Amino acid sequence: MTVAVVGGGISGLVVAWRLRSRGRDAVLLETTSRLGGAVGTRAQRGFLLETGPNSFLDREPAMRELASALNLEHRIRAADGAAKRRYVYTRGKLRSVPASPPAFLKSDILPFGAKLRVMGELFSGRAAPGVDESLADFGRRHLGATATRVLLDAVQTGIFAGDVEKLSVGATFPPLVKLEREHRSLLLGAIQAQKAQKARAKALPAGSTGPKLSGALSTFEGGLGTLIDALGTALGDAARTGATVEGLTRGDDGWRLAVSERGQRSELKASSVVLAAPAYVTRGLLEPLDAELAARVGGIDYAPIAVVHLGFDAGTTPAPDGFGFLVPPMEKRRLLGAIHASTVFPFRVEAGRVLYTCMVGGATRPDLVALDEAELVALAREELKALAGVTATPTLTEVFRWKRGIPQYNLGHLERMDGVDRALTRLPGLHLAGNAYKGVGLNDCIRNGLALADALVDAGA
Ligand SMILES: Cc1cc2nc3c(=O)[nH]c(=O)nc-3n(C[C@H](O)[C@H](O)[C@H](O)COP(=O)(O)OP(=O)(O)OC[C@H]3O[C@@H](n4cnc5c(N)ncnc54)[C@H](O)[C@@H]3O)c2cc1C
Fold it and tell me: In this protein, which residues make up the domain named Amine oxidase (predicted)?
């Protein structure tokens, strides 16, 4: 019998694709008319616009493995060298983020006293064992209040668009907690890790070409939609769009899904089910099966986010330097940040054009995502003018709005996940996938999706 995968975002696509490439029968059901969920690329009047995510870091073997199996490796495009620098808006202007400890000491990113406090990190202690600490508390212990509000909050904004006081450090940045556990000080830990990496590189046999992963910020030729298109093509008829899963029941011979597809209701029988829809949809499907599990899953918050693209004709505004900038919430501005999309990936625009991708909303300004499109464009233009001095009139504007955009791994998330995993043992053959649980990045979704599919095949599910 087949495995049914509910939800055709990157997570569901990867699970269904891997199951089928390993010889299992799998069908994917996606409620909207297109595959990809948050991921998608639209070509519009000489600009390639991303609907949600812009890039991934080429440091995840699972992403490379997937790209290679789909014959897309040669279409991976690394960010332009000009995108190396990153900026943070703080104390009235954009300031470059230093890339090394000596550069940090010379930089003006933090006031002098706050820089001294960061150096004091060397003397930080460990957290009490078993404490689920907020990212803000963790940051204040290690880096001090100012660096936490300026730098750490900016970093999390770029990934989670969250509230630094609510996010759990263990759930959002597990490597930081590991560094603290193993080395006490993050700085000492980072130095040790760098030494170990150098030693490993030295130990590589002569002539070895080293690891294939570039570590660079990357996308695909044609944008991230290229990956979705390739997965869709590989799945063929096994990926059904316009198919909404409305109910799920368990019988003696497996699972039954109530599917509504282009006005027709039908029942699909499956030996196993992978729920890869957002948590708030999954909650509804789980409710009749296990109220406790449904409540745990349904308790995961989402931050809304609007993506506002502003495209400029050649010669109307200078090409901005660097990847883009982030705005820490303490600045009380209306922009979370902006990506200099045409600097990062010049092939995404026709020659000389400039594309800014602005992010608005997040956990700290959810109200802004409810503005209408014209208001969001006006807001993005006003903020770009105030923060980055962009005064030209864009020739292209496009808004993509995600009312429940990014899952928030707030305090209690890890405990919630333990409870979810325990509850799932009561429902054999039912599995969860997707960005709500164990990683929000594309790399996380792909790594977790492949691992789940492999586990299902290996268990003979
Ligand atoms: C604005 C934005 C910017 C981002 N930037 C980056 C970035 O630069 N780099 C990065 O690594 N990550 C980024 N992310 C995160 C990453 O894009 C997401 O975490 C990831 O794409 C989520 O994939 P998913 O498949 O888990 O969920 P989704 O993409 O949400 O897919 C879930 C799917 O389930 C479908 N569905 C819902 N209900 C049903 C139903 N009843 N029946 C059938 N199907 C259903 C939905 O239509 C949807 O297609 C960004 C996210 C957003 C929103």
Answer: 10-456
